[in-house]
UniProtKB/TrEMBL annotation:
Organism superkingdom: Bacteria
Domain Amidase: 25-432
Protein name in the entry: Amidase
GO function terms (MF aspect): catalytic activity
PROSITE patterns per UniProt: AMIDASES (PS00571)
Gene3D superfamilies linked to this entry: Amidase signature (AS) domain
């Protein structure tokens, strides 16, 4: 018997359309696997079986009558526990929000539901989304598919684990500094960071709203394209035939992102570039020294907004938080308004310099993460190690957020090593079309 829980979301959608899979049976298969899986409590904060079954019944009726609403109508997915869901707790991985129950769905969840996605439940995450590691001793630390003793990446940690362990066809997460791309890379998935402002954030628990974005974690670029369309109620790109890479021009970014890189990601990155060259693409090394300033300013930009959003709540009950994450928030309270404004002015100038330096390329490439998933025990016992690994983990992905870009990570074939493609602001469609071709080259 075919195991539906390891198929791509697109494959499941096509099987539903062809009458080969009933959405009700499909949803029950996922719910049964979640119920029986020994690690599911570390992946799902809570499941929504009644909602899932009702949505699956409606999807099945539409399939029978030929009125499916999207290519993914009837496909079960998970949602990071910062998307409001009516009548179900949304706690953003934090004891500060324990028993917070919204009355309505977030608009993005409502849109996806209207297009037929089936909601399996809410996945665990880093506290208030402020860590790239995925370590959360307050609620749960999800597992990493490649290392039982390591963290899975964050903050969309449970979203990645739900897909990697076959407990959802796809996961919906958020990305402020790398929170979709890091767990996707460390669990050998595709992760799409959308441009800030493209998908509405209303009804999502914020971290730093000027950088917060919504994006899918899934098995293929085709899935990412279909999920983007479902999340915003649009039309997906044509994913049927990846174009040739002949004549495509890539920039291999050297500035900052390849400093102190560990051997495995370095080797995986070099091998990926060789495959792209073999497929006919040109790859040129580039330096963009201007980005070093914003990278240094990122603490000012992120922590100031995060503390401005959460400072009063944290200060009222500081002991409810995991200390390293609380201390990261607290770093924002010492930044002056003048320093914050000046950092944004510098960032705007550097974004213009980035656009000029990369204008001649189809995409900019770099390793998604310069390190492998760290061990849980060491992170829990060595605070300095926690701080340095967290900052290193998010360093490369943060370029995409700071520059305001669409970005995607693809598996390289080396466990927990991803290839990141940086596109242009609001350039998700051309980036996805290019990523289809890169995916084909990497798997050749």
């Amino acid at each position: 018997m075919t195991d539906w829980t390891v198929q791509t979301a697109a494959e499941l959608g096509r099987a539903i359309a062809a009458g080969k899979v009933d959405p009700v049976d499909l949803t029950e298969a996922f719910l049964d696997k979640i119920k029986d899986h020994p690690l599911s409590d570390r992946i799902y904060a809570r499941t929504t079986p009644d909602r899932a079954r009702a949505e699956a019944l409606a999807a099945a009726a539409r399939a029978r009558s030929g009125q499916r609403r999207s290519p993914l109508d009837g496909v079960p997915v998970s949602w990071k526990d910062l998307f409001d869901s009516a009548g179900v707790a949304t706690e953003a991985g934090s004891a500060l929000l324990r028993d917070r129950v919204p009355e309505t769905d977030a608009p993005v969840l409502r849109t996806a539901t209207a297009l037929g996605l089936v909601c399996l439940g809410k996945t665990h995450m880093s506290e208030l989304a402020f860590s790239g590691l995925g370590l959360n001793p307050v609620t749960a630390t999800p597992p990493c598919i490649n290392d039982a003793d390591a963290v899975p990446g964050g903050s969309s940690s449970g979203a990645a684990a739900s897909v990697a362990f076959g407990l959802a066809a796809a996961g919906i997460g958020s990305d402020t500094g790398g929170s979709v791309r890091i767990p996707a890379a460390w669990n050998d998935l595709v992760g799409l960071k959308t441009t800030a402002g493209r998908i509405p954030l209303t009804g999502t628990v914020p971290l730093a709203a000027k950088f917060d974005t919504v994006g899918p974690l899934c098995r293929t670029v085709e899935d990412a394209a279909l999920l983007l369309a479902a999340l915003e109620g649009g039309r997906a790109i044509d994913t049927r035939a990846p174009a040739s890479l002949e004549g495509r021009r890539f920039a291999n970014l050297l500035t900052v992102v390849q400093d102190d890189i560990r051997p495995e990601p370095a080797a995986a990155h070099a091998a990926a570039l060789n495959r792209l060259r073999a497929a006919g693409a040109s790859v040129a090394d580039i330096e963009v020294p201007e980005i070093t300033g914003p990278m240094g300013d990122s603490g000012v930009l992120y922590t100031t907004e995060a503390w401005g959003t959460w400072g009063e709540t944290i200060a009222a009950q500081p002991d409810l938080m995991f200390a390293p994450i609380r201390e990261r928030f607290e770093g924002g309270k010492v930044v002056s308004g003048a320093d914050y404004v000046a950092a944004w002015r510098r960032l705007d100038r550097v974004r213009a310099a980035w656009a000029a330096a990369t204008a001649g390329f189809d995409a900019v490439l770099c390793p998604t993460a310069p390190n492998l998933p760290p061990k849980v025990d060491r992170l829990m016992t060595e605070n300095d190690y926690y701080v340095t690994e967290n900052l290193l983990t998010l360093r490369n992905t943060r370029v995409g957020n700071l520059m305001g870009l669409a970005a995607i990570t693809l598996p390289t074939g080396t466990p927990s090593c991803g290839l990141q493609l940086l596109g242009r602001p609001m350039g998700e469609e051309p980036l996805l079309r290019l990523a289809l071709s890169v995916e084909a080259a990497l798997s050749a």
